[in-house]
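Appendix B. Raw example, untouched.
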Amino acid sequence: MKLLSRLPIAAILLCTGMATAAHAERASTVVASPRQSFDFDQNWKMHTGDDPAASGTTYDDKGWQAVTLPHAFNEEEAFARDIHKLSTGITWYRKTFRLPKGTHADHAFLEFQGVRQAAEVWVNGVEVGLSENGVMAFGFDITKALKPGDNVVAVRVDSNWKYRERATHTPFQWSDMNFYANYGGINKPARLHLTGDVYQTLPLYSNLGTTGAYIWADGFDIAGASATIHAETEVHADQAMNVTYQAMVRDLDGKLVATIDGGGAALKAGETTTLSAEAKIGGLHFWSWGYGYLYTVTTVLKDESGHVIDAVDTKTGFRKTTFAHGMFSLNDRVLHLKGYAQRTTDEWPAVGISVPPWISDFSDSLITHDNGNLVRWMHVTPSKQQVESADRLGLLTNMPAGDSEGDPKDRRWQQRVELMRDAIIYNRNDPSIIFYESGNKTITEDHMAQMKAVRDLYDPHGGRAIGAREMLDSKIAEYGGEMLYINKSAGKPLWAHEYSRDEAARAYEDDWTPPFHKDAPDYNRNNDSMAVEDVKRWWDYYQQRPGSGDRVNAGGVKIGFTDSNSHFRGDNNYRRSGVLDAVRLPKDAWYADRVMWGGWVNSDEPATYIIGHWTYAAGTVKPVYVVANGESVELFLNGKSLGKGERSSGFLFTFPEVHYAPGELKAVTTYKDGKNSEYSLKTAGAPAAIRLTPHDGPRGLVADGDDLMLVDVEVIDKNGQRVPTAFTPIHFHLTGAAIWKGGIAQSEGPYDPAKKDATNDVLATTLPVELGVNRVLIRATTKAGHVHLTATADGLKPAALDTQSHALTDFGTVSDGLSTVFAGDYQPSDLSRGPTPLTPSYQPFQWTVPVAAIIAGSNQSDAGDSHDDNERTAWSSDGTPANAWIEYDFARPEAVSLLSLKLTGWRLRSYPIRVTLDGKVVFEGVTPKSLGYVNLPLTPATGQHLRITLTGPTEDRDAFGKIVELKDNKEAASVGADKVAAGWRLSVVEADILKTVP
């Protein structure tokens, strides 16, 4: 099986089902009622700088910049500036709108999905509210401020990094200059909702104090495709009324599959009541990994005469989750977690966070089509758009509230709890959210209990675990896992939160491809080196996967899905640890992960990938690395075998000295069953032409002032093959109904903080390709029209692209500042992976040998700590050479084959040991340094008494080089070496004794 070609990448992104309605609770599009919901993003004006008079209705804003939301005032600084130097200050936004003719609204609610940082809002000169947390959605009841005819909304946004909560003068912990890039202003969409005097509330707790609808399922019969569906809705009544409540469930095709009767209720004037309905439903499609099957649940209120007085659509999916035995299961099938830890800003050059929904799907689908299943959004809650994208794609997510690092004890902690409350209420109907993250670092048990209480109050049935990074031995947290160390558990799942921290710019392939860049393992690698490192690091977790015994690792997420305008490590002013660059072009690591991650637990989807390219100078001799998931790999150059590669880290096959010759380099992988997969590279010819390839959303380019088109630019040879050694400057010229946003490049060389900031060619109209390819962005204006883009370069045949943007009115009503067009409604679900298989996802390949007794040469009272499924405890000998041993006795003789050890100081310290079974030596040697566990194969033998003896003193030396977050000293390495001195001390954190399954 040949792995996908490198371009066009969009061709593999979306194998889709039906387009779906947007998920956020909105007026129903299938059941008519007095309720109306409008997109509120059009016809805004923006001005940077403060003017208190701008809140008034008569203020002259004619000279302000016209913008469409979302729009951060400093969006063009994304990747052009170091995160610490992003502009901040006061920004004003103003908008005039008019309610539709004949509309009578008993209540009008203005919803902002997020503003950075603090927003004061006025309607017709009347201040209606303040939001300060800079992360979550919020809303105001603006009914009393409205008037007939034109209405003016004014928003004053303060994006100061050090903004303090007014009531307490307390800063927000998550407003951190390292982690949460400050794209200031109204950087997420806005909505307007009109309701009658008896209505279902919105899920906007801050300011409004309401919780909206809550949809969930239980009583799952996965094989029988049935579950009990529950609908609850908070209802407010201005007047006393008898109502009936029902929930109508429609499938992805819009077909009504069930109507659930919730009975009647007598509502009292001025009170808020929760109504509910439930029923067992069959024939369900369960939401799954890579299977974003969604239902529309319409909750309906009727009066005594049967007239519909309110109807709300909620988009959701139904899935069963289990967190037990050290594993996560989805729909009764174990899933080894694998994916990426990504900054929630998820920014793009020159537009920052402000992208249309199809761009979110384009980006996130590169996770699921990389065979990833989990994204850990970092530090703050993802936007609703990001959550809905994951819903459609079948991508599991981890949702934080707000944090940088640490566990504050003052008002900052209560701010975190309140933000978690708001985030849970707003997102609890989204099936993609699987984990609630209470902290980016260990928090106290009391604080964990507070967060869990919030979850239990507002989302007790959603099938989501709440925990935090680390929290290995917490009695309350329902999941945990360290930043990059390997953890195992027989209880709650433990997964790595930020493994494989190295960085590499996409432009630098290897030591033989210009521009030559010295590979350095300290955050400054080449692409091939970074891909190899990713293979090594994933192998650490894969070895401990489900099936490897009673205690297993639940998986891990690599830090950095895309390059990020975040705190940086290498020679750029942004972070380059992504497997994609900032415009989502893949690096070799993306393809490597795709090979290793195919399958729910085991890597069982045959795949092969050759790292790099095959276009070099004559006389080049270089190593060739192949990533494959078979038993052996044979390399062929122009049909001649170069032999088989040296296997390491499970998936890596190395051919150390391959003499370059132009032609075809092919790798053929052989599997245990004799089948093959293969991948080949061909030498490119001389650069001959430019090729442009556009990517846009399902509607094409829409003239709404927010939509984007991506355009890939390649330098190709006369046969149309990309030239991977080309770094040609390309000159772009754009005319018509679009705005140039450009791309990003390495052309300015290493970042020097002592000099003027490197802009990385952001917004430049001349941009080089890198390894033969780059990508640029153009943004639609608000007027439909022709768009013409040309690309030229010296000595190359030019290329041109012509397209026509579509008027927003082609898709719905747009009038007086209000629109019925919601871009997310046009995004289809990805069903390409299919429903959850009913077969087991793995077969055990190792069994844990039960231990009946433990005897130690010293400190006997602590011996049990070496085998207690708690990595916060350990047994250590007393420092006397003769006492440096520990023995594990079995109830009966066992055929032991593997010893899996976590030893104190695992990253720094090697232990010379001898392992005997009933006195017979089954292993003798020095344990390797590791990022957690080491697996020591034992000479096959059967016995009842396994003894580990230290045969020499230990000494500390870091095996993993410079890791900024885990400094090169014993204490900061957090491996226990600061507590247990080196020398004649055997120190065991956990010992797992295993035998091979016959």
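End of appendix B.
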